[in-house]
Design brief:
Elements lengths: L1 E10 L2 E9 L5 E5 L5 E7 L5 E3 L7 H5 L8 E2 L5 E2 L3 E4 L2 E4 L8 E2 L12 E7 L2 E10 L10 E9 L4 E10 L3 E2 L3 E2 L2 E2 L13 E4 L3 E5 L5 E7 L11 E2 L9 H5 L5 E5 L4 E5 L5 E7 L3 E5 L8 E2 L2 E2 L6 E6 L14 E2 L5 E11 L1
Antiparallel strand pairs: 1-2, 2-3, 3-4, 4-5, 6-16, 7-10, 8-9, 11-12, 12-13, 13-14, 14-30, 15-29, 17-28, 18-21, 18-23, 19-20, 19-22, 22-25, 23-24, 24-30, 25-28, 26-27
Bound molecules: alpha-L-fucopyranose.
């Protein structure tokens, strides 16, 4: 196993570094300290050909102007918060409004658009990077300074493990995720409509205007949201289900997990991605509205990739029936997700 560190450009007078982690099978993960962004993951197909399985840009400039949160760690709170407002301990907090009247993915200054400190991890059975960032009191509008620690590590079992920890100095909200856009075909040769997805989830969260959760949980039985036995991603985009139409003819929905395992499979290449998490939900986003801008593989198009954002329920703070994302002063927040790459 090896890890290489190299310069990746500058942002805001700060040097940005890239890290490439590689295991003995040649599987490699490249990430940068700007936004803890995963820029590339090379995995073998069933013939052993190594190709990239995430969307990305050629250089830092691409990520600096990106509006789709490519590969980044999202925080303090992933997803939308309605009216960019919430109440905690009897006080009302106003957050950055960065999508219509709402708050999205942490606001204006957020985990995904700052440079993190880094420390290389080299151990007998894994290589990786530990990123740290101090999010000051009031950043994005959230109370309480919190030092966040994100680790990315790769082992010889083909597993990329991501962890996130933070201990806030005041009661606050934390609900992070990673926003990698997966496409297992290899170098984005095809879209992801033929990928097969399995999610052990019997209920998903209904969305309303501006893709905000309504608070209702819907039974997946008999709908294109039933991934319990596995189904083609295309089933959503091809359907007339109102929820599918509402968010741009695809999936952009939170699923509550019965079992914390998710599987994505591309039959043509044989590549399989198994995800294990300690989170209660996954937001499935099929890049429904990605249009036009130039990426590493060429022009961005709908359905070129799928995000599987493991996290707590979005807008939980405004829906008392959703599991809480409040983290108390001095309490430890812990997020963990493991991505296992293999072939079938
Ligand atoms: C996902 C979606 C949003 C948004 C963003 C880029 O998390 O939930 O709709 O488009 O990513």
């Amino acid at each position: 196993m090896e890890i290489k560190t190299y310069p990746y450009g500058t942002f805001d007078n700060q040097e940005v570094q890239a890290f490439t982690l590689k295991n003995e099978a040649g599987l490699s993960v490249t990430c940068i300290d700007y936004g803890c962004i995963i820029t590339e993951i090379l995995t073998p197909d069933r013939n052993g050909t190594l190709e990239n399985v995430v969307l990305g840009y050629d250089n830092l400039e691409g990520y600096l102007s990106d509006v789709t949160y490519q590969g980044a760690i999202i925080g303090r709170v992933a997803g939308r918060i309605s009216a960019a407002e919430f109440e905690l301990n009897g006080k009302t907090y106003s957050l950055d409004k960065n999508e219509n009247n709402n708050h999205l993915h942490g606001g204006l200054t957020r985990f995904s658009n700052v440079v993190w400190d880094s420390k290389v991890i080299e151990e007998e059975d894994r290589v990786g990077v530990e990123f740290t960032y101090v999010s000051e009191d009031c950043e994005g509008g959230y109370p309480g300074t919190v030092e966040m620690k994100i680790t990315y590590s790769l082992n010889n079992k083909g597993e990329l493990e991501i962890t996130g920890t933070g201990i806030p100095e005041a009661d606050t909200l934390l609900n992070i995720t990673n926003h990698a856009y997966f496409n297992l075909s290899g170098d984005v040769k095809r879209d992801i409509l033929d990928h097969e997805l399995t999610i052990k989830s019997s209920r998903y969260i209904e969305l309303g205007q501006e893709s905000l959760p309504t608070g209702e949980l819907i039974d997946v039985t008999g709908t294109v949201f039933d991934f319990r036995q596995g189904r083609k991603v295309a089933d959503g985009p091809n359907s007339e289900d109102e929820q599918i139409v509402l968010v741009g003819q695809g999936y952009d929905h939170p699923f509550m997990l019965d079992e914390q395992e998710i599987e994505l499979y591309d039959e043509a290449s044989g590549r399989q991605l198994a995800i294990e998490t300690n989170q209660k939900a996954v937001v499935v986003y099929t890049s429904n509205t990605m249009e036009g801008f130039t990426m590493r593989h060429g022009e961005a198009r709908p359905y070129q990739a799928i995000c599987l954002e493991t996290q707590g329920a979005p807008d939980a703070i405004n829906h008392p029936n959703f599991p809480s994302i409040v983290v108390k002063k001095d309490e430890k927040y812990y997020w963990e997700t493991k991505y296992r790459f293999s072939v079938k």
